Amino acid sequence: MTEKEELRDVFRLSPDWLSVQEVLEAVSSPTCGAVSLFIGTTREDLVDGRKVIGLEYEAYEPMVQSEFRKLCDDIRARWPSVKHVCVYHRLGWVGVGQASVIMAISSPHRLDGQQAIQHAVTQLKATIPIWKKEVYDTQDSSWKQNVECSWSLHRKPTAPSENT
């Protein structure tokens, strides 16, 4: 009988290029048959006739780890088989085509990991205090809201519950 494997969760903010290999290594496990991976990249987009040339990210770093811990607890409550969670997120300038975020989750079977990674990406955008500013080819910029955030102006209103 082998010892029970400890759960491992890593969240790293960095101004440097992100390594997919490091993220994969952080979640590798001999007890897991699946690693689900998400890579979010900066896309070239046209906004009001201006071309996006990059994003600038800022974070409230003292709160990031605490919110990440809550996210991992939530993931494990929903998918108890999830072993390891790793998220690397860029800060500062991220040019078109570069990775802004790399996330991986390991689990014994693929379905739990796939569902958990989808949930984690959505919750990361909704709850982790990281903000992005689009920078355009005209040299102007604008801060963007994630539609997943409860305070977002772009969020679709939900129907009132029957209890209200």
Report on this model:
- GO terms for molecular function: molybdopterin synthase activity.
- It is a single chain.
- With 164 residues, the protein is of the alpha+beta class.
- It has a single domain, classed as Molybdopterin biosynthesis MoaE subunit (Aldehyde Oxidoreductase, domain 3, Alpha-Beta Complex).
- The chain contains 3 helices and 9 strands; from the N terminus they run βαβββαβββαββ.
- The chain has helices spanning 20-27, 61-78, 110-127, and strands at 8-14, 34-41, 46-47, 50-59, 84-90, 92-95, 99-107, 130-136, 141-144.
- Strands 3, 4, 6, 8 and 9 form a 5-stranded antiparallel beta sheet that branches. A 4-stranded mixed beta sheet has the order 1-5-7-2, sandwiched between helices.
- Helix 2 packs antiparallel against helix 3.
- The radius of gyration is 18 Å and the shape is elongated.
- The N and C termini lie far apart (53 Å).
